[in-house]
Structure formats: structure tokens, C-alpha cells
Amino acid sequence: MQTTALYLEYIPGFSLLEGLLQSTLINVLKTGPIPKHISFVMDGNRRFAKTHNLPLKEGHRFGADALVRVLDCCFRLGVKNVTTYAFSIENFSRKSEEVETIFTLLKQKLALITSENQLCDVHNVRIRIIGNRSYLPPELLQDIEKIEDQTRDNTRHVLFVAFPYTSRDDMFHATNKIIEKLTNGEIEFDQIDETLYNANFYYENIDEPVDILIRTSGHTRLSDYMLWQCHQDSVIEFPNTLWPMFRFYSTWWTIFRWSYYKTLVIQDAEIMQLKKISNAQVKKKYPGIPRTHPPFASVTR
């Protein structure tokens, strides 16, 4: 079934009909609240390749194609920030051939989406690489920094690519930067707080924390990812869909459910606010009326 869905786009006329349907769904969802920051753990490429008897590199290639479709959906909806977990520092323990494949595909895909009339150009997207760049080969580092420079002036959306990244390394990086600034006299000890930490992560003081974090393939673990950036209102989803099959409709449905429940929360907050205003008005007009109910009594006491 998944294989059939994967190749439906090649049926004549299907792309046109699908485009009309997607535009309609986008417009419907725009009538409600839209998350400001969505993050993806793109898990399942290797399992996808194994399931479909494909070479491992083809699984990663399908995963890279899925990323472009998911990003297009997010940016069309108006999501300001998207983060993708492209490569964990711990992934360096994999075979060198697979690591090289991931590096090559990432560089090629970033180069493609930043070219003229492609995703970054159409949606005015800035690309920022977050992670420990000391692990990267000099040539690859030069290439991704060039891609960052190409999109530096784009301001509507930001695509954060976690590469290579872990939360522990991010926290260690921020702590070292703060210690360095403290040693150099740039800051005082009593200035160290949560705000200062936010400003020294690889994200460099991002305005919007994560609204939705999605890890595909059904694994229910975070794998040392965005442990600081998630907060009490973050929604964490663990769909069973393998990442190469997580496309427009999976993304749309996830955001739709978030938007629906967010609307309920907003409505509840508005009702509570109206009740507070109403009680305040009553108290002001009738100051002698008690604000609470009288004490309970019984027929025997």
C-alpha cells in the first residue's frame, strides 16, 4: 500500500488534482491557529529501504525528498520555524559509507532548495545549521556555510538543520560560552540565567520554543534532541509512519489536530477572562455582595 502511494504522483493528471486538494486544505487550516515552530526527527529511512528491498542510500534519498514536501507544507501554512534532526553526533558510529551518503545527500538537497525558484526562494526561507561544526570535514563545512550565506537575507521563515547535533553537546557548548564570557569580564556572575543560556545555544536565542515535535517510525524516544527547547506546552508526536512516507497529508493532519486543540484552549482562556471581567464589574457595582458562597449548613447543625 505504501509503495502504491509512493508512485501515485506519476499518474497523468494526479499532480494537478492533488495540488488543488492541497491548496484547499491549506486554506482551511489557515483559518485557525498555526504553530510557530515544528521540529522533526526524521527516523525510518533505513527501515524503509529494508522493507522495500532498496539499497540503504535509496532509503536516505527518499527521506530527503520527503523533507522537501514536508517543508513546503509547513511554509505554505505559515509555520515560521522548522527544525530537522539531520544527523546526530552519535551517528558517527555508523559505517563510513552510510555517513558519507547522508553528508552528500544533505549537501545536494540544501543546494537544490536554495537555488533559484526553489523552496527557499519561493517561501523566503533562511537556512541555519545548528550543531558542532568541528566534527565536519572542511570541504563540507565550507559548502554548508556558503548555503547559509546565500539565504542570510531571507526573513519570512527559518529552517534549522541540526547537523551534527545532540542536546547534551548543545548545553555543553552554551555552558562553555558563558564561562568564557564570565572569564573575559563580558558578563557578571549574577547575569547568568535562563535567558542568557537561550542566547548561547546553537540556536542563538530563538524567539519561538517548539510547539510540535514529531518523531516518525514509531520509536518513542527523543534520542538526546531538543531537551531544552521543548517546554510544558510542547506536543510530542510518535507516528508509526516511516519518514519517507511522512509527507503533505501526514504533516497537515498533525497540524490540524494541534490547531483544533489549541483553539479549544484559547476559547477556554477567553471564557475565563470574561468571567473575571464580569465578576469585577459586579463587585464594582455592588460592593456589598459577597464574592464567595455562604458557609455550608445542615438541618442538624
From TrEMBL:
Its EC number is 2.5.1.-. One of its GO terms (cellular component) is lipid droplet. PROSITE patterns: UPP_SYNTHASE. SUPFAM superfamilies: Undecaprenyl diphosphate synthase. It comes from the Eukaryota. GO terms for biological process: polyprenol biosynthetic process. Pfam families: Prenyltransf. One of its GO terms (molecular function) is ditrans,polycis-polyprenyl diphosphate synthase [(2E,6E)-farnesyl diphosphate specific] activity. Keywords: Magnesium, Transferase. The keyword Isomerase does not apply. It is an enzyme of class 2 (transferase). Belongs to the UPP synthase family. This is Alkyl transferase. It comes from Pichia kudriavzevii (Yeast). The lineage of its organism: Eukaryota, Fungi, Dikarya, Ascomycota, Saccharomycotina.
